Structures are given as structure tokens and as C-alpha cells.
Amino acid sequence: MARVTLTQSAQADLLEAWLFIAEENPLAADRVLDAIEREANTLLLQPLMGRARPELADGVRTWPTSTPYILFYLADDAGITVVRVLHHARDVRQVWP
Q: Which of 76, 55, 82, 53 is nearest to 65 (CA)?
């Protein structure tokens, strides 16, 4: 069965996002992380539907979630590995990987 795996960097990104949003509204922070989790699981149905990003690394794809965050992930037979979860306004090259 395919599954979503999060790298330590992706876990740290999600914690940072939650903490930032939760300063104003903890329930909103929960909703954002829930939406990101749902959409990561949706990618399991068609993992190659994200945009290929060869300029970042071989095999990296991106998926813009319904939140202000973008999933950066790798797809393989086991599912997807989320490498980073970054706000759409971030300069990806400054924080990659």
C-alpha cells in the first residue's frame, strides 16, 4: 500500500507553519495542516501529477496545495516522500533542500 513519508525537513516545515499560524489562531493552524495532509494523501492516487522540478533535484515534483504552502516531493513505488513544505512566497533556492 502506498504511503506518504515526511522527511525531517518536511516535519520541521510543518511545525514552523503551525506555530506561525497558531500565534493568531490555533484552529486555523490545525485546518491548514489537515488540508496539507489530505492533499498529500490525494497525491498517492496519481503521484506524477505534480510539476517536475529538475532544477532542484532529480525526481523532485511540486504540488500547490489549497493552502499557501507547496509540497515538494519524490514519488516511487512505495508512495511519496515529502521533502519540504514551503510557503509559496519563499525563495525555494535559498532554503533547498
A: 82
Q: Is-contact 86 72, C-beta < 8 A?
A: yes
CA dihedral 9, 65, 70, 6 (to 10 degrees): 20
Segments making up each domain of the chain, as ranges: 3-95
| Single-letter amino acid, residue 49 | M
Per-residue CA distances from 38 to 16, 56, 67, 91 (Å): 19, 25, 11, 25
Domain 3-95 sits in CATH at 3.30.2310.20
* pLDDT in the model for residue 7: 97
pLDDT digits (tens, 9 = 90+) for 35-93: 999 999 999 999 999 999 999 999 999 999 999 999 999 999 999 999 999 999 988 88
